[in-house]
Amino acid sequence: MKRKPNLNPENYTLPDLLDDPAFLAWLLHPDDQSNAHWADMQLRYPNLSYLIADARKLVLTLKFQQDTMEPAEYIQLWEEIAGETVAKPIVKLWRSLWFKAVLAAAVTLLVIGTGFYFYLNRSIEVVTAYGQTRTLVLPDGSELMLNANSSLRYRGNFGKAKYREVWLKGEAFFKVNHIHRQGKVFKQDIFVVHADKVDIKVLGTTFNVNDRRDKVTVALINGRVSMQIANQPLLNLKPGDLVTYDQKRNFIRQEPGSTKAQVAWKDGIFIFEKLPAEELFNKLQDKYGYKAVFKSPVVKEKLISGSFSAADFDHLLEGISMALNISITKDESLHQLIIEIK
């Protein structure tokens, strides 16, 4: 495999690492100098630590099995050498042994190659629990923050075979690394987020994707984004656009409100802009897992506006209770929020 010129170790993928002669030399024949070099590399580029661990497991487990002769084969061989059998069978025997060795090596290579193929094409999935967020750096250097109760999946050969693509369930804020510089745009330059029936394609930009309750909402902060939906014309977004695809109704609409409110969660804040209480408590359920039980249905229509800290769930509920003039009782055993008018 031809090495990429001036590849930044920060952007290494597993195939890049396995294609680095210096890395393989250190892995197979370590010495004090190479140990110091790769220890320094891992300090400078923390992402390498995980790749090195995977590469070490892969390389050190790929061992050829030596083909050995059975005792009867040794006896027959020495008998032929001593002249106790004719010379012709000895040629057949050596051919048989040579064929077995080649076959064993070929089978081993096939098993290794197949294993390596599936290793590179394996799915890597990151999942967050209720109330938890997580920051990730993808192999291409793109960064994202995964919101609570969400999952992100991508292939081990990320960006090598086709697009740089990920599969999202829940919500994530993306800062996509723009790797295309000039000239023709190749598939590997394009970053794709698959969110249910929606494909969001970009070259490099900052945006938020929320895929919950049969709706996919995209908030574009800067750059350009295209939304591709089955049986729908391609939709191009501009910075500041907030667009939702309702999958049940197969309907696309421009959302009111600001992208700032949509992405505030990444800073540990909720911003509500004339949001009905029913939608508010749906958002809380998505993030914290508590289902709202409305003892007074009229509360569902109440509107709330304002900024609330999400650092402490109980304090958040107190603030919402005061803003809507309602009582909220948390039932831990049933994981419910009992909503009533005061």
| Total discrete domains | 4
Largest sheet: 13 strands, mixed
Number of helices: 9
- Find the CATH topology of the largest domain: Jelly Rolls
Specify the CATH class of the largest domain.
Answer: Mainly Beta
Q: Point out poorly predicted stretches.
A: 1-6, 63-69, 84-88, 114-119
Helical amount among residues, as a percent range? Answer: 25-40%
What does the model show?
- The protein is an alpha+beta fold and 342 residues long.
- The protein has four domains: 9-60; 71-120, no CATH class; 124-258, Jelly Rolls (Sandwich); 268-341, Phage tail protein beta-alpha-beta fold (3-Layer(bab) Sandwich), CATH 3.55.50.30.
- It is 33% helix and 30% strand.
- It contains nine helices and 18 strands.
- It has helices at residues 14-18, 21-28, 32-44, 47-60, 71-81, 87-120, 259-263, 277-288, 313-324; strands spanning 123-127, 134-137, 143-146, 151-155, 164-175, 191-195, 198-202, 206-212, 215-222, 225-229, 235-237, 242-246, 251-254, 269-276, 291-294, 303-309, 326-331, 336-341.
- The strands form three sheets. Strands 1, 2, 3, 4, 5, 6, 7, 8, 9, 10, 11, 12 and 13 form a 13-stranded mixed β-sheet that branches. Strands 15-18-17 form a three-stranded mixed β-sheet, covered by helices on one side.
- Helix 5 runs antiparallel to helix 6 (87-120).
- The longest helix is centred in the first third of the chain and has 34 residues, at 87-120.
- The N and C termini lie far apart (70 Å).
- Residues 1-6, 63-69, 84-88 and 114-119 have low confidence and may be disordered.
